Amino acid sequence: MASAKTLTLESLKPQKTLVEQVYARILDAICEGTLGPGERVTQDELAARLAVSRQPVMTALGLLKQQGFLVEHGRRGLQVAPADRARFDAIYQLRSALDPLAASLAAARAGPEQLARGRALVAHGRRVAAAGDASAALQADVDFHAWIYEASGNPLIVESMQTHWQHLRRSMGEVLRRPRFMQRVWKEHAAILDAIGARDADAAARAIAEHVHDAHERVGAELAAAEKRAA
């Protein structure tokens, strides 16, 4: 009788499709300012720059237009949408409701591994903020809040905030270039994490509610100043 062989299966990490990769590259360029507001984008030029065919670029541009990052501009085709102050305020209104809920759920549900990841994210954020790395600090900020949404255990919160946070990346960059703001942001993040780690749902909700309110005012003031300079 032949001996049975044991087949060991490891979990597979899904690879991003070409469309997803193209979408991410274009979105990063918009959020980081490489593609600025009003700048024209074309399938042919982007396909050449990214060394891909036109098809994935066309699909990615369609998604970005649907999400409000690109707009039609007559016969010129698509161009990068300007930062939308009304959308910005609407996102913060949504966050003022969802973020405290997510933090309180995370305080009740986050496991030891998730808490360890949260501590690692805060430590990393503080390091890049201290180093004055604005781009890394912005990504760390996004990652920390995504961690709270995931730790909440509510997939609808995660889905609801994914695209909205990409819009916030565009407006948050200016604030997070300023050292005094970066240090304050990560102090607030640490307080939120401490409350979640202490399993204090009420304190976590209060801490993040104050953080969201202050962030709205900080970033809003920078947007208003930028609009005044542009005018």
Task: Describe what you observe in this structure.
It is globular, with a radius of gyration of 20 Å. The relative contact order is 0.12. Mean pLDDT is 87; it is low at 1-9. Strand 2 and strand 3 (78-80) form a beta hairpin. The protein has helices spanning 18-32, 43-50, 54-66, 85-109, 112-130, 134-151, 155-175, 179-197, 201-230; strands at 40-41, 70-72, 78-80. Helix 1 (18-32) crosses helix 3 (54-66), helix 4 crosses helix 6 and helix 4 packs parallel to helix 8 (179-197). The longest helix is centred in the C-terminal third of the chain and has 30 residues, at 201-230. It is 73% helix and 3% strand. It is mainly alpha-helical and 231 residues long. The chain has a three-stranded antiparallel beta sheet. It folds into two domains: 18-80, Winged helix-like DNA-binding domain superfamily/Winged helix DNA-binding domain (Arc Repressor Mutant, subunit A, Orthogonal Bundle); 85-230, GntR ligand-binding domain-like (Four Helix Bundle (Hemerythrin (Met), subunit A)), CATH 1.20.120.530.
How would the blueprint of this fold be written?
Elements: H1 18-32, E1 40-41, H2 43-50, H3 54-66, E2 70-72, E3 78-80, H4 85-109, H5 112-130, H6 134-151, H7 155-175, H8 179-197, H9 201-230
Antiparallel strand pairs: 1-3, 2-3
Mean pLDDT: 87
The CATH superfamily of the largest domain turns out to be GntR ligand-binding domain-like
CATH class term of the largest domain: Mainly Alpha
Number of domains: 2
Sequence of strands across the biggest β-sheet: 1-3-2
How many helices does DSSP assign?
Answer: 9
Sequence of secondary-structure elements: HEHHEEHHHHHH
CATH architecture annotation name of the largest domain: Up-down Bundle
- Fraction of residues in β-strands: under 5%
